Amino acid sequence: MNYKMVFGTVGTIMRIEALLMLVPLITALIYREAGTAVAFGITVAAAFIFSLLLSYLCRTKNQTIYAKDGFAIVSLAWIILSAVGALPFVISGDITSYADAFFETASGFTTTGASILRDVESMSYGCLMWRSFTHWVGGMGVLVFVMAFIPNLADRSIHIMRAEVPGPVVGKLVPRIRDTAKVLYIIYAAMTAVQVVLLLVGGNTLFDSIVHSLGTAGTGGFGIKGDSLAGYSAYTQWVTAIFMLMFGINFNLYYLILMRKAKSAVRSTDLWTYIGIGGVSIILITANLRGLYPTLSETVRHAVFQVASIITTTGYSTVDFNLWPGFSKAVLLILMFIGGCAGSTAGGLKISRVVILFKTIVREVKQTISPRSVSVINYEGKELEKRTVSAVAVYFALYIFCILAVFLVISFEPFDLETNFSVAVSCFNNIGPAFGAAGPMASYADYSAFSKVFLAFAMLFGRLEIFPMLIFFNPRTWASSQR
Amino acid sequence: MKIIIVGCGKIGTTIIANLVSEGHDVVGIDSDPAVISNLTDLYDVMCVCGNGVDCDVLAEADVDKCELFVSVTGSDEFNMLSCYLAGKMGAKNTIARIRNPEYNDKSLGFMRNELELSDSINPEQLCAREIYNILKFPGAVGIETFSARKFELLEIRLKPDSPFDGTSLAELRRKFQAKFLVCAVERDGVAIIPDGSFVLRGGDRIGITATPSELSKLLRETGLLQKKTRSVMILGASTTAFYLAKRLIDAGISVKVIEISRERCEEFSRKLPSVTVICGDGASAELLMEEGIDSADAFVSMTGLAEQNILISCLAASRNVPSVITKINRSELISMAEKMGLESIISTKKIVGDLITGYARALQNSIGSSVETLYKLMDGSVEALEFSVQSDFEYTNIPLKDMKLRKNILIAGIIRGNTPIIPAGSDIILPGDKVVVFASGTRLSVLSDIMA
Asked: ipTM of this predicted complex?
């Protein structure tokens, strides 16, 4: 274990976070919120000084990191990010308990969007901006951001990228990791900017446009109103729905389109499965909801918005889908598991894993019928390595176990089975709203402090796809000698 | 600059490692997924898994946008075809590894033309040439030539009782009338570019540049080097050994080759009848004594096993063979071998890596004063580069003593027309000159990089 490199990188991450906090600090200054500005000022200064100290103590020539160091760096960075990011909420007094603030920040960075706030509208502008900004940063990944803008990373930094970027296979767009990270962030920022402009055109205020675009881009879902997006115009809801769906698509495809290779982008299995699942869900829900809303167009809009919000694991809502019929809720619950495409900002199991699992099942059935048959699993026109196929199966098993474990632990809370189960699924898949007492128009405020911290870690586990955190919490990772 | 490497074996990986550290965008192509995944773990490269002569694979690697395409798989014909396709698909420069001795100079030239290759590399031949150069100056650690032999760079380890011990470089130049420069010194593992007040000590590893005639004069006068090599014992009848033996025989040096496989012994002796070929296990000390290791002037250990080469070289060194050369193809073993006292270590990977790196640097600056030769010495911490001076170089006609050079930079030689000059403070650089520069700790890619 290269401790110095691990903690040194964490120092760098803290410095980056301090810089990122300048955004809410400036927002607070613009809106003349003295208390909030001071809270961010104190946190920025403290984080900056501490990070310099950490980087100084951990300066080292040996920059070699292995897979486990990469996992440890990413896990530790995400925990520290949430822990430090929670401070301004507490200092400014917008959130009184630290457990609540930690939950809120972890929920922000992991792009979950689950909130413990009963009354969002009373929050200061600075804090609202910080909440949504954490979505944007967490969506594409903090370490990817670091890689894009800090020169001279070690050769083996692919280990870090692999630990942070979700999906079964992590590929590069261009040879150098730094350029890959840059390309990703440029596409990401450009799409966010387009959405801001479109929302502005629709008559929204600049603040609302920015905050909602940040939440959409990261597929996060922190709203600034108690009823999420229900109070906004149909135009705003349509734009947000379409952009949510766009941010759920693999970013590599956008790069291919930019490189004028649209043909190979259109051929992607991932994309068509995503569109197919989304489309079928919308039709099923629309059919199930007929008669609930006055016009068909309104029904379709609500169906599209809610499906887009749940499949991309964003968590915005335009209606209280808690009140929908059981069948529609079942469709949404299943979508929570599936999630968006790998290589996007969405969470969940990922479309590609679902396809690979499905193909594995088909092969297994075929092999049982004719035991001597030989077949390989192809995906996106390429043969998948055996290791990848088995890794997907193992990941799926682990994923189910983790959700069950979260479900079991939070079942001590005095809520019904539906609430607790959907909360476990929703937090682990980084969605946000659940059913029952934690529905889209309610909040997580009534959960105990222990459950909040526990759920915050569940979100981190889910965002980093389990293994990095599992390895981080495994004592053998930190053991000095081989055992 | 975008560079594609086909074949990520030992040589391919070394080239990739070098190019990545130079900051190029490197794409590797190999058909073995295990090799690919290992490579992407270790270096910041993109890899494409597939056959390097498959147009789809080449297109996936964006061959049309690449400036340099290098094919170094084990098969010559594969490399030629791959480079040919890449060239047709838009790669600007192509280099193929072609090593079969049956493709002699004449047919190789024809093929290079027809296949539109920018260059072909034969690692074994390059390796043999380097060993031969060292044997020409017995006792030298390494040797490199610049500008078609106008300058030679000799790397040598000073003995504790060396006549250079305790003299400063300025004194040294006064004492010996020969024109030479001490360009780099490595002491206790740290390499420096010395100035005139630097005092040499026994045990230092130094790099000297001079013209070939001055160099032999200097060596004669100082007794730095031992007597001329007359007999060489080579362990292992590899292709490299064949190229080396051929050169040595042509230079009138007697060669004895020891090889365990009878088949290869026979083939070797068929090709080079004047070489004494011994069929036996070179790892046996008994056999080496019997074949006269004690009377050999030089011993070259180049079997396929680096560990064996190291140990047998140690044996040869303990029998006081004047120069012992060890071929090691695993880079992690090189520093170990140096700790064990072996000085002359040859690694094919390093030679090819340096060559391609130099090529890439030259391509990067095809306009301006570009790198012609790149040689790394003192384990890569010092670079010797040859630049050709173009008319756009701003610092012509200024005496060297008035030029503000960056730290750790030394102008070691100027070649004007056909005349080599060992520069002093009053010399100037003119357009059309070739300049040999030593640098430590910085990467130079154009000549103006030397200015502060």
From this structure: 0.76
How far is the C-alpha of B351 from the C-alpha of B348, rounded, in Å?
5
Q: Is A114 helix (H, G, I), strand (E, B) or coil?
A: coil
Of the ranges A50-59, A160-169, B186-195, the best mean pLDDT one:
A50-59
The whole-angstrom separation of Cα B393 and Cα B318 is: 52
Handedness of CA B158, B162, B164, B167 (dihedral sign): positive
Residue in A170, A336, A354 with CA at minimum distance from that of residue A273? A354
What domains can you pick out in chain B, each with its CATH number? 2-121 (3.40.50.720), 143-222 (3.30.70.1450), 231-321 (3.40.50.720), 354-450 (3.30.70.1450)
pTM of the complete model: 0.81
Beta carbons of B307 and B336 less than 8 angstroms apart: no
Q: Tens digits of per-residue pLDDT, A426-479?
A: 999 999 889 988 888 888 888 999 999 999 999 999 999 898 899 899 888 887
In contact, A423 and A434? CB cutoff 8 Å = yes
CA separation, residue A289 to residues A293, A325, A332, B263 (Å)? 8, 7, 13, 83
Touching B: A residues 252-311, CB under 8 Å: none
Contacts across the A-B interface (CB distance below 8 Å)? 32
Beta bridge mates, B30: B49
Tokens coding B413: 């030689």
**β pairing state of B344-346 and B323-327:** parallel
Q: Which 8-state DSSP code applies to residue B29?
A: E
**How many Cα atoms are found within 13 Å in the side-chain-facing hemisphere of A19?**
13
Contacts of A153 in chain B (CB under 8 A): 44
Query: Which residues are B86's β-sheet partners?
Result: none
Residues near A177 by beta carbon (within 8 Å), at least 6 away in sequence: A147, A153, A157, A158, A161, B44
Q: Return d(Cα A455, Cα A446) in angstroms, integer.
A: 13
Residue pLDDT, tens place only, B117-175: 888 888 888 899 888 888 877 767 777 777 667 788 888 877 777 777 788 888 877 77
Cβ pair A49, A80 in contact under 8 A: no
**Chain B interface disruption, residue of A155, A165, A264, most B CBs within 10 A:** A155
- Buried/exposed A189-225: b ≥16 CB within 10 Å, e otherwise: eebbeebbebbeebebeebbbbbbbbbbbbbbbbbbe
Nearest-5° Cα angle at B298, B292 to B300: 95
* Closest C-alpha to B202, from B160, B164, B166, B168: B160
Residue B197: CA atoms inside 13 Å, Cβ hemisphere, count? 0
Most A CBs within 10 Å: which of B14, B32, B41, as the mutation test of the A interface?
A: B41
CB of B316 within 8 A of CB of B337? Answer: no
Is residue B108 within 8 A of residue B76, CB to CB? The reply is no
The SS3 assignment for A444 reads coil
For A408, half-sphere exposure in the C-beta direction (CA atoms, 13 angstrom radius) is 6
Measure the CA–CA gap between B93 and B90, rounded to whole angstroms.
9
Q: Residue A482: which pLDDT band, with cuts at 50, 70 and 90?
A: very low
Cβ neighbours of B45 in A, within 8 Å: 175
